[in-house]
Amino acid sequence: MTYRGRWALVTGASAGIGAAFARRLGAAGANVALVARRRERLETLAGELRRDHGVDARALPADLADPAAPDAILDALSRERIAPDILVNNAGYGLPGYYHASPWRAHREFLQVMVTSYAHFVRLVLPGMRERGFGRIVQVASLAGLVPGSAGHTLYGASKAFLVSFSQSLAAENEEAGVKVTAVCPGFTYSEFHDVNATRPLVSKLPKYMFMEAGPVVDGALAAVERGHVVYVPGLWNKYVAWLMKALPRTWAAKAVRRQSAKFRRSE
Ligand SMILES: NC(=O)C1=CN([C@@H]2O[C@H](COP(=O)(O)OP(=O)(O)OC[C@H]3O[C@@H](n4cnc5c(N)ncnc54)[C@H](OP(=O)(O)O)[C@@H]3O)[C@@H](O)[C@H]2O)C=CC1
Ligand SMILES: CC(=O)[C@H](N)C(=O)O
């Protein structure tokens, strides 16, 4: 699939899965608007995309914990007459510990980044996509959004379950308008995610077959959105876990998640 001449907006583009999306989309000919907090990383990546793929690229540093950020980003793009045909909602992190152990501000900001900013970006780009009869919306959820909640990182699985359900409704509402929507649900993926939330010592003890590189996750996600696959789980192991969690009685699945997640969720 070529996206030559189209603009993509990628959040969380300064590292990991988001940076992989930006590179794959650039390689497919898309111009790419890059959003994250680390300006220097975005500018370096924008230069790489221009140099390696001959596409246009913009660095748009922003903290998505700021409720005004999505409007400011789309206003900046609109001033340059840029209207995204592709949105990759990806920015995210894990907030370790039990719910009562973090202040409400930490939870409020988490929900702003992981849930509200996603919904806000979609609302800002969707009308234009529908008018043009073309749109691709990829929302990076997680396998954690398809399984019962774990102890620790309390809002994480819930935020990802929201993205799965939100994407399903968006797909149903917009299929006729030429707008395709996919929630991609990776399992453990090599990125900075587990360094940022200081769980690397825990997850590094997990079997390697539980992990995937970001590139194949992204390749699968882009192929999934093109074929209209609304909830996409990359990798055989993750597909097996998703299937097992659906096949088991809920109480058994919840017990299994509780047992397994104790190995990689921080309780403090
Ligand atoms: N890695 C994994 O095992 C899995 C990850 N996921 C999901 O994938 C997505 C990407 O994570 P991943 O690539 O792994 O992790 P990384 O930590 O490598 O990348 C996270 C990205 O999100 C950005 N980000 C974080 N907080 C903010 C903020 N407040 N404002 C703007 N940007 C922000 C970071 O940029 P910066 O710090 O520069 O702001 C960075 O670009 C997340 O939604 C995560 O939940 C899902 C399943 C598995
Ligand atoms: C980052 C992830 O979503 C991973 N599956 C985890 O739960 O840590």
From TrEMBL:
Q: What family does the entry list? A: Belongs to the short-chain dehydrogenases/reductases (SDR) family.
What Pfam family is a match for this entry? adh_short
Q: What class of enzyme is it?
A: oxidoreductase
Q: Which UniProt keywords apply?
A: Oxidoreductase
Record protein name field: NADP-dependent 3-hydroxy acid dehydrogenase YdfG
Per the entry, what this protein does is: NADP-dependent dehydrogenase with broad substrate specificity acting on 3-hydroxy acids. Catalyzes the NADP-dependent oxidation of L-allo-threonine to L-2-amino-3-keto-butyrate, which is spontaneously decarboxylated into aminoacetone. Also acts on D-threonine, L-serine, D-serine, D-3-hydroxyisobutyrate, L-3-hydroxyisobutyrate, D-glycerate and L-glycerate. Able to catalyze the reduction of the malonic semialdehyde to 3-hydroxypropionic acid.
Question: Taxonomic classification, please?
Answer: Bacteria, Pseudomonadati, Pseudomonadota, Alphaproteobacteria, Parvularculales
Catalytic activity from the UniProt record: 3-hydroxypropanoate + NADP(+) = 3-oxopropanoate + NADPH + H(+); L-allo-threonine + NADP(+) = aminoacetone + CO2 + NADPH
User: Which Enzyme Commission number(s) are on file for it?
Assistant: 1.1.1.298, 1.1.1.381
Q: Which GO terms describe its molecular function?
A: 3-hydroxypropionate dehydrogenase (NADP+) activity
